[in-house]
């Protein structure tokens, strides 16, 4: 080939290369412009959604999503471009799935949740996985729901998150809870004249009222609601007081003090002004803020509404409920410094400053990494709903003793079916002989509905526990009631742990000795060793065939940890008895946490209060006295033990 031909070939190849480069640059620029255009479409959809036009918003989201699908199929994309585009598509799919859950369209939500699971399931939060499972169950696809749930079972943070564990367990336990025994009472769906979501029950002038949401958006976590209206429960009319609440404050629960002089209402605002929250957060799209008004007896009208607290922006404050004759208020909030999600808080009215005190978190006895909502005090008990405690799935209703404004540790009670189900059950309310609560147990057939029960047959409030037999409670492992409740169920603790006498020929079931352990320890003290030696040396001990060595732990710590610690304590005692020459076959067993009587905590509180006379007589409401952690450890000492018992023959 001559020089001229060589030069021409070189110029031709250079031209082809340059043309390809220019084409690639143009293609990259086109792709970038396409991504910017879809970003603008997404932002426009965000604005439409938060401004109340979800149909237009969802249509725009889908256009952006479909366009991203087309761009993902472009074979000219390099690996980095493809990775970014797939990431953007998954993020948008997750946003669409979440929004469809807000719009109560589970059939659409599962399509986009599946897309995220197939491509990048690390984007999913615990709430997302639970919502995905809930959507599948509402569509009747329990099998796929269980497949999805088990796919996350051994991953963090799911394996240690109680809300997820409740959801996983509920898939297999739905028949277990519903099919074992019958309660002594029934709950009934309250048929009202509206197909809307009924989500709140309160009291005004001695009569109950309920709230309905007319908004299409419904928070699956039951924290916020749109476009609320209030009606008398029995007459179906709108009470006059509610007509005076500004429209912007009729976006959630409203509470009145017992004397009718103070009102707390709820406003709904966007957590962000122009964008829906990021996909790596469990934070909701909207937040609640609380405002209060006081009735002026002289001017015969309500004052202007003022913020309950300063700096409520960025966090939710909701579900207000008065107690202590209106001087104190409970509410739920996800403000910073809590245990995770929505926690229960209390605040007290300061008559000197004419304002509410700074919120005080009610502590780990009732608050979890999940959500605690809808608190209410009735008598000496706090009622609330939680999706972060051990339960059936979703929100369940719980009760805890609340004596002298102090939560009594060890008194937490989880209600059985038919009050609690594998769906969301919350907002319990009592009106004399009638009781009510809210549930979405009808699934796709309904929204949040009010259910009633006859509170005279099996009182859920006052001093009686839930109306089920002791045998039924034992079967489902829920003997967690408060002691001293008359003929109702009793707690599975001993009223007095005793060092029993040692008989020459002990009978089956006799308690030979109980030995006690230090907090968070499985090591034997010198006193425990001496007591165990005495048992082995007692006449008749080595003539026994079998001994049960049963370990317990106190109520601090997780269920899993307490079970492990109780087993370690039982093994420690069994090994020591064996080393001392014990001839009976030893059967060590750990039974987890053991509760102590409520009276022990009350007695400790009374002793502590007696050392500080005059507390509580001040004009200003002060935070109630509580036991310190060390004092609680001392009270629960009798739960940290191992019982050595003559084994019964099976």
UniProtKB/TrEMBL annotation:
<dbReference type="InterPro" id="IPR036737">
    <property type="entry name" value="OmpA-like_sf"/>
</dbReference>
<keyword id="KW-0998">Cell outer membrane</keyword>
<feature type="domain" description="OmpA-like">
    <location>
        <begin position="504"/>
        <end position="650"/>
    </location>
</feature>
<dbReference type="GO" id="GO:0009279">
    <property type="term" value="C:cell outer membrane"/>
</dbReference>
<dbReference type="InterPro" id="IPR011659">
    <property type="entry name" value="WD40"/>
</dbReference>
<dbReference type="InterPro" id="IPR006665">
    <property type="entry name" value="OmpA-like"/>
</dbReference>
<dbReference type="InterPro" id="IPR006664">
    <property type="entry name" value="OMP_bac"/>
</dbReference>
<protein>
    <recommendedName>
        <fullName>OmpA-like domain-containing protein</fullName>
    </recommendedName>
</protein>
<dbReference type="Pfam" id="PF00691">
    <property type="entry name" value="OmpA"/>
</dbReference>
<dbReference type="InterPro" id="IPR050330">
    <property type="entry name" value="Bact_OuterMem_StrucFunc"/>
</dbReference>
<keyword id="KW-0472">Membrane</keyword>
<dbReference type="Pfam" id="PF07676">
    <property type="entry name" value="PD40"/>
</dbReference>
């Amino acid at each position: 080939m001559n020089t001229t031909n060589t030069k021409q070939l070189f110029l031709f190849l250079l031209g082809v290369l340059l043309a390809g480069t220019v084409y690639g640059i143009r293609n990259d620029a086109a792709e970038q412009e396409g991504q910017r255009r879809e970003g603008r479409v997404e932002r426009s959809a965000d604005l439409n959604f938060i401004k109340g036009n979800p149909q237009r918003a969802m249509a725009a989201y889908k256009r952006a999503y479909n366009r991203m699908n087309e761009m993902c199929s472009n074979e000219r994309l390099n690996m980095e471009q493809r990775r970014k585009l797939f990431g953007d598509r998954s993020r948008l799919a997750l946003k669409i799935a979440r929004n469809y859950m807000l719009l109560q369209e589970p059939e659409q939500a599962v399509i986009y949740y599946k897309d995220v699971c197939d491509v990048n399931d690390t984007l999913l939060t615990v709430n997302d996985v639970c919502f995905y499972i809930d959507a599948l169950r509402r569509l009747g696809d329990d099998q796929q729901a269980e497949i999805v749930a088990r796919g996350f079972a051994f991953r963090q943070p799911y394996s240690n998150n109680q809300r997820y564990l409740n959801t996983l367990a509920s898939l297999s336990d739905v028949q277990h809870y519903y099919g074992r025994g019958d309660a002594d009472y029934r709950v009934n769906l309250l048929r009202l004249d509206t197909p809307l979501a009924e989500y709140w029950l309160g009291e005004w002038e001695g009569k109950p009222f309920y709230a309905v949401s007319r908004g299409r958006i419904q928070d699956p976590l039951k924290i916020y609601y749109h476009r609320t209206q209030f009606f008398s429960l029995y007459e179906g009319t709108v009470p006059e007081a509610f007509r005076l609440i500004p429209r912007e404050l009729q976006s959630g629960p409203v509470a009145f003090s017992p004397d009718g002089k103070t009102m707390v209402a709820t406003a709904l605002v966007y957590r962000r002004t122009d964008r829906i929250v990021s996909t790596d957060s469990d934070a909701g799209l909207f937040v609640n803020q609380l405002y209060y008004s006081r009735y002026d007896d002289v001017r015969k009208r309500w004052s202007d509404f003022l913020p309950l607290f300063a700096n409520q922006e960025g966090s939710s404050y909701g579900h207000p409920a008065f107690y202590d004759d209106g001087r104190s208020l409970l509410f739920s909030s996800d403000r910073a410094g809590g245990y995770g999600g929505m926690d229960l808080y209390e605040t007290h009215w300061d008559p000197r400053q004419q304002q509410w005190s700074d919120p005080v978190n009610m502590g780990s006895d009732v608050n979890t990494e999940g959500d605690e909502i809808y608190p209410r005090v009735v008598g000496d008990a706090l009622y609330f709903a939680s999706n972060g405690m051990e339960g059936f799935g979703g929100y369940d209703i719980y009760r805890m003793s609340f004596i002298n404004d102090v939560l009594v540790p060890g008194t937490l009670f989880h209600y059985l079916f038919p009050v609690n189900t594998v769906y969301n059950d919350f907002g319990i309310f009592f009106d004399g002989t009638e009781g009510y609560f809210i549930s979405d147990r009808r699934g796709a057939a309904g929204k949040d509905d009010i259910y009633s029960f006859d509170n005279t047959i099996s009182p859920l409030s006052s001093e009686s526990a839930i109306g089920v037999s002791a045998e039924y409670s034992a079967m489902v492992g829920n003997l967690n009631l408060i002691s001293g409740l008359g003929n109702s169920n009793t707690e599975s603790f001993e009223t007095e742990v005793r060092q029993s006498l040692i008989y020459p020929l002990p009978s089956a079931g006799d308690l030979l000795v109980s030995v006690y352990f230090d907090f968070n320890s499985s090591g034997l003290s010198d006193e425990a060793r001496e007591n165990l030696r005495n048992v082995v040396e007692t006449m008749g001990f080595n003539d026994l065939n079998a001994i049960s060595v049963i370990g317990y732990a106190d109520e601090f710590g997780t269920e899993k940890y307490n079970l492990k610690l109780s087993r370690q304590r039982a093994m420690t005692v069994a090994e020591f008895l064996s080393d001392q020459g014990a001839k009976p076959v030893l059967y060590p067993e750990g039974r987890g946490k053991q509760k102590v009587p409520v009276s022990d905590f009350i007695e400790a509180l009374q002793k502590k209060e007696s050392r500080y006379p005059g507390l509580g007589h001040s004009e200003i409401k002060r935070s109630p006295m509580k036991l310190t952690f060390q004092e609680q450890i001392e009270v629960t000492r009798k739960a940290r033990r191992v019982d050595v018992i003559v084994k019964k023959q099976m």
